[in-house]
From TrEMBL, chain A:
Pfam families: DUF6272 (PF19788). This is Uncharacterized protein. InterPro entries: DUF6272.
TrEMBL record, chain B:
This is SiaC family regulatory phosphoprotein domain-containing protein. It comes from the Bacteria. Pfam families: SiaC. Residues 6-123 form the SiaC family regulatory phosphoprotein domain.
Length: 181, 124
């Protein structure tokens, strides 16, 4: 990358009071190592243990969602072009914000936005009810997750989940998700 | 029946099940690459064991962090034990948590809500 591009990128990132930013192919070891780095950093900041675990757990759910989605498309023989995942942890005022972005297939967009709109409309009690309902469902064969990640993030968030879905071409949308803690 | 022991890693817990003593222990952090693969031997072992368990069975859980797919696996483990309890077997759970971490207490309480077996939550 050219020097001025790197400068612009770094300037953009530092404006977000950035803790970490990772973009590239997510492997389990990358997720684990970055997670450790985040925890070490937050422990040095002397913030409460429950707050550290909230940031860490939202980061793990987002990173594993990106990784599992990418792996599932590969398994279907439809690999996502240009390994596109990104996860960013930053701070806005007193709040930590954990964000992720990745390409999703156009066919998955209606289901994803319906789910997020539903969660955005629920209060704490409503989110807990949806969480309990989902956690009792038998696991779908072949599913890599339990379908609890987004609900769990919404429960930990201090404001409704923010998201965007932007068409990249006919086949893919860029999905971004922002969770404020 | 053989005991089951799986050593802890940085992202998966210790599993230490002693069938004769009826002492089952799960301890550490749980966010493995694939939770369902990780817990598959645990489910298999419990299914077999609960057909003819020790007179009293205690599951000691000391999990400081679980990702959501591990939470689902733990719900399934607790449901298996709860089924044995409802069939008249003596089964109980002791959930250990770090008193600095109130999230861990909230989580333990949510697990306890869904089962009828004796469920103790212990701060350390």
């Amino acid at each position: 990358m050219k020097g001025n591009e790197l400068f612009n990128l770094q300037e953009l990132l530092s404006r977000q009071k950035l803790l970490i930013c990772f973009s590239g192919p997510f492997s389990h070891s990358v997720i684990e190592e970055l997670g450790k780095a985040v925890r070490n950093h937050l422990e040095n900041e002397r913030i409460e243990k429950s707050a550290i675990m909230d940031v860490f757990s939202v980061y793990v759910e987002q990173a594993q969602n990106v990784r599992n989605y990418t792996a599932s498309r590969e398994a279907l023989g439809r690999p996502i072009p240009a390994n596109s995942g990104i996860v960013v942890i930053g701070k806005e005022g007193d709040h930590y914000v954990v964000s992720s972005g990745n390409l999703v297939e156009a066919d998955d967009v209606p289901g994803l936005s319906a789910m997020l709109e539903k969660l955005r409309g629920l209060d704490k009690a409503g989110l807990k009810a949806v969480y309990k309902e989902q956690s009792r469902k038998p696991r779908e064969p072949g599913a890599s997750g339990a379908g609890l990640g987004l609900i769990d993030m919404a429960r930990k968030a201090t404001r409704p989940l923010e998201y965007s879905l932007r068409a990249v071409d006919d086949a893919y949308f860029f999905f971004s998700l922002e969770v404020q803690l | 029946m053989d005991s089951l022991r799986i050593e802890a890693t940085s992202c998966s817990p210790l599993i230490d099940f002693d069938p004769a003593a009826g002492l089952l222990r799960i301890e550490g952090e749980s966010y493995p690459e694939n939770s369902f693969d990780f817990y598959a031997p645990v489910f298999g072992w419990l299914e077999e064991y609960l057909k003819a368990p020790a007179p009293a069975v205690v599951l000691d859980i000391g999990l400081s962090y679980l990702n959501t797919s591990s939470i689902k696996c733990m719900i399934d483990v607790l449901e298996m034990l709860d089924g044995a309890h409802q069939n008249g077997q003596t089964v109980s759970v002791r959930w250990h948590y770090d008193s600095d971490n109130d999230r861990a207490l909230d989580m333990a309480e949510e697990f306890a809500e869904d089962v009828s077996l004796p469920f103790e939550i212990l701060a350390h």
